[in-house]
Amino acid sequence: MSAARQERKSDGVAAVAAALVSAGLILVGLGLAPAPSRAATTERVVANRHTGLALHGFDPVAYFVDGAPSLGRAGLEYRVAGVTWRFRNEGNRSAFAADPDVYMPRFGGHDPMAAARGAGTPGHPRLWLIADERLYLFYSAEARTEFVQGPEQAIDAAERQWPEVLLTLVP
Questions:
Q1: Residue 25: enclosing H or E segment and its boundaries?
Q2: What is the pLDDT of residue 127?
Q3: Which of 5, 77, 81, 126 is exposed most, by the fewest CB atoms within 10 A?
Q4: Nearest to 84 by CA among 66, 67, 98, 96
Q5: What pLDDT, on a 0 to 100 scale, did the predictor assign at position 4?
Q6: 119-154 b/e with 16+ CB inside 10 Å = b?
Q7: DSSP letter at 1?
Q8: How many CB atoms lie within 10 A of CB 12?
Q9: How far is residue 171's CA from residue 166's CA, in Å, rounded to a whole number?
Q10: Residues 27 and 89 sit within 8 Å (Cβ to Cβ)
Q11: Rounded to a whole number, what is the distance in angstroms from the first to the last CA of the chain?
């Protein structure tokens, strides 16, 4: 291929790419295409398969600001990481929207003790603990107690197993 033809070909490819990017930005601006998710999570978040609600509708920010689980309201929702999150007030929704990874439960809401053993077991929103500024949910009170006895070791073990556990989870 001649140098002139290569130059024309690369100019054409660049023009097509620029047009596609512009069209995508216009569609997003008009609300005709979804904007990309802001969360950088690679975790599969536990959600109710019938409603699509994360945490069974509990407000993820409430664990941090109230020190207790609190049900969110249907009118105060935010969708990220493929699930719908509910909030009890606008302030909590705004805080979550600004930085969802801070408030989402670690391991997507799966029990870290089960993950450490290589299993993807959903945690329950009423069996929870905040450790190292992250929210963890547990399948049972026994798993929570076991976690409390050595949180650093439990988190390390869960992190080592998590990539393999992710492969077993149904999207």
A1: helix 3-29
A2: 98
A3: 5
A4: 96
A5: 52
A6: ebbbbbbebbbeeeebbbbbbeeebbebbeeeeeeb
A7: -
A8: 10
A9: 9
A10: no
A11: 46
> What is the per-residue pLDDT for 115?
97
C-beta separation of 88 from 73 below 8 A: yes
Mean pLDDT by 10 residues, the chain (171 residues): 48 43 38 36 79 96 97 96 96 98 96 97 97 97 98 97 92 70
Which token pair is 25? 């930005």
Nearest to 107 by CA among 52, 154, 166: 166
| Cβ proximity of 54 and 109 under 8 Å | yes
Residues 165, 118 contacting (CB under 8 angstroms): yes
| Predicted pLDDT of residue 44 | 87
Q: Which residues pair with 131 in a beta bridge?
A: 134
Residue type, 85: W
> CA 92 to CA 102: how far, in whole Å?
12
82: amino acid identity, one letter: G
pLDDT of residue 170: 75
The reported pLDDT for the residue numbered 101 is 94
pLDDT of residue 95: 98
